[in-house]
Amino acid sequence: MFVTFLYFRAGIAQLARASPFQGEGHGFESRFPLHKKMNFDEYQDITDKTAIYPNRGKNIVYPTLGLTGEAGDVAEKVKKIIRDKDSNIDTDTVELIKKELGDVLWYLSQVAMEFGLTLNDVAEGNVKKLRSRKKRGTLKGDGDNR
């Protein structure tokens, strides 16, 4: 299954501008032009080159803490939409949330890699689980093994 996602044009453009891989024969800009949809494997390949943290490859704690922190940032921004903007969402807010979700995606990618998984593995497994639950009428409720 070829799973694609809407990549974040601004985030990728910023990464491309600040990329340490420019001019070093890595072909970042030509491999991933801004008009091209990107699959999870491509995203993971790009972001893997930006991962710098202690004991990378043997450290599930660091990216997991980063993931929870960034998810908390998303929740905080949503809370402020309710409190400060009377739940009205404007284009500036959408851009802010998009940047935060990009950070969540980066850490999610790193957590998956620490477990030897690709984001495609995770996405395909999740779709399989949801299809099974829908077929069995168990989308509602709680528990992982319903």
Feature tags:
6 helices, disordered N terminus, 146 residues, single chain, two-stranded antiparallel sheet, mainly alpha, Helix Hairpins
Overview of the structural elements:
The chain has 146 residues and is mainly alpha-helical. It has one domain: MazG-like (Helix Hairpins, Orthogonal Bundle), CATH 1.10.287.1080. The protein is built from six helices and two strands. The chain has helices at residues 9-18, 28-31, 40-48, 61-85, 91-114, 119-136; strands spanning 4-5, 38-39. It has a two-stranded antiparallel ribbon. Helix 3 packs across helix 5 (91-114). The radius of gyration is 18 Å and the shape is globular. The two termini are 24 Å apart.
Show unreliable segments: 1-25
By oligomeric state, this entry counts as: single chain
CATH topology: Helix Hairpins
* Largest sheet strand order: 1-2
Question: What is the number of independent domains?
Answer: 1
Structural class: mainly alpha
Overall pLDDT level: 82
Query: For this structure, what is the CATH homologous superfamily?
Result: MazG-like
Q: Major sheet: size, sense and barrel closure?
A: 2 strands, antiparallel
Shape descriptor reads globular
Helix count, DSSP H or I runs of 4 or more residues:
6
List the helices and strands and how they pair.
Blueprint: E1 4-5, H1 9-18, H2 28-31, E2 38-39, H3 40-48, H4 61-85, H5 91-114, H6 119-136
Antiparallel strand pairs: 1-2
Helix pairs in contact: 3-5, 4-5
Q: Short summary of the structure?
A:
With 146 residues, the chain is mainly α. It is built from six helices and two strands; from the N terminus they run βααβαααα.
